[in-house]
Amino acid sequence: MKFDTRAVHVGEEPNFAPGGTGDVVMPIHLASTFARARIDEPTAGYEYSRSGNPTRDGLERRLAALEDGRHGLAFASGLAAETAVVLSLLRPGDHVVLFDDLYGGSRRLFTKVFSEQWGLSITFVDARDPENVAKAMRPETRMIWLETPTNPLLKLCDIEAICDLAQRKNCLVAVDNTFMTPAFQRPLSLGADLVVHSTTKYLNGHSDSVGGAVIVNDDDLHERLRFHQNAAGAVLSPFDSFLVLRGLKTLGVRMRAHQDSAARIAAWLSERSEVSGVIYPGLDSHPQHDLAARQMSGFGGMVSFELEGGLTAARVVLESLEIFALAESLGGVESLVESPALMTHASVPAQARLDIGLADGLVRLSVGIEDPEDLLADLDQALKKIHT
Ligand code: P1T
Fold first, then answer.
1. Using one digit for the tens of pLDDT, what is the confidence trace for 68-119?
2. Residues with CB under 6 A from ligand 1
3. Torsion angles phi and psi, residue 230, rounded to 5
4. Is 50 labeled as catalytic in the residue annotation?
5. Cα separation values, 117 from 106, 111, 114, 326, Å
6. Which of 196, 197, 200, 363 to mutate to test the pocket of ligand 1 (most atoms within 8 A of CB)?
7. pTM for this prediction
8. 3-248, what's its fold?
9. Do the domains 251-387 and 3-248 match in fold?
């Protein structure tokens, strides 16, 4: 089955078995517990909704199918999914190499919780060059943690090259695929061991659910993650599972629409005198455009840019936009704009932001699926306010 067909059907097949009602959409199974007729025979395999729930199961199967993986697991948030990966697969004293440009909350989780409180040892590197990853590896390195493209600077890393060097050292590679989604990038097929998502973003796509996911191929990794999911309990609710199942049906069409408008906006911004630089992997000017074209089947809906007038000008633009909502998060049908330095990445120390090239004046757009003419007109009126 092709991707768009899997996105509509896998995990949500009508049940024609005796007692099944043939629903063409997944019912929201709200039951916290499942009665059984015999003490040692859970009905249809279900016991208690933390351990397993039919609606969540449907979503987990679909997530696996879309990422070309064997097993999916759904969690209460993207950060809960990341926490599950670390607590189930790593131990205090283990070493992790991380891309130095990550979502601010991921960086905070690894730095403040896993490193400072729990005893994980971590090294941030510029993973655009796989050599930097190789150099940072130690005998006790157990995992490489990547985002590609990164949030918010849209830097890429070569997943295949990094997986190659990890495999030689018996080290796991986890890729946060939130920005590209499986519609445009499949890290498991490139050799990664784990794919992580904030389903809050494109997968759900409608800004009305917070959730996370992990997808793996390996049965042993799955078993350890599944044990942790039940033992620690940060599961996605049945209602949220339903919402993400519903959102996923249109993932392919949404991603193509996000991308078409983002590409148009990125090109348009590049011509504006108020703008000093535009970052979009689909632009020829992106330093890793070739890798983007090779590794991904699309360039996504995120655009970052800097203004000649820096933070002062950014404040004017951010507060003047009318269709773009000034808000954290991304990946919904509605366009959002934000200041990483003041909002999503405020928890990253100023020096670390400077080191990775995250300017205070950087503006990040999550381009929605509104008519692009309206989005361009909105940007135009906001840019014109800089000099008034
Ligand atoms: O917010 P949550 O569902 O817990 O997901 C965290 C997360 C993980 N990975 C990436 C790449 C992310 O972008 C996020 C969340 N990001 C934002 C809220 C944001 O505005 O960038």
1. 999 999 999 999 999 999 999 999 999 999 999 999 999 999 999 999 999 9
2. 77-79, 103, 105-106, 147, 151, 176, 178, 198, 200, 210, 212, 328-330, 344
3. -75, -40
4. yes
5. 15, 9, 6, 33
6. 200
7. 0.98
8. Aspartate Aminotransferase; domain 2 (3.40.640)
9. no
**pLDDT classification of 19: cutoffs 50, 70, 90:** confident
Q: Closest by alpha carbon to 187, among 51, 307, 297?
A: 297
**Rounded average pLDDT over 190-212:** 98
Q: Where are the domains of the chain?
A: 3-248, 251-387
| CATH T-level topology, domain 251-387 | Aspartate Aminotransferase, domain 1 (3.90.1150)
Q: Which helix (H) or strand (E) holds 278?
A: strand 275-279
CA distances from 383 to 288, 316, 379, 380 (A): 28, 8, 6, 5
Count the neighbouring beta carbons within 10 Å of the beta carbon of residue 247.
23
Q: What is the DSSP string of 54-76?
A: HHHHHHHHHHHHHTT-SEEEEES
Which atom of ligand 1 is found nearest the CA of 211?
A: 3
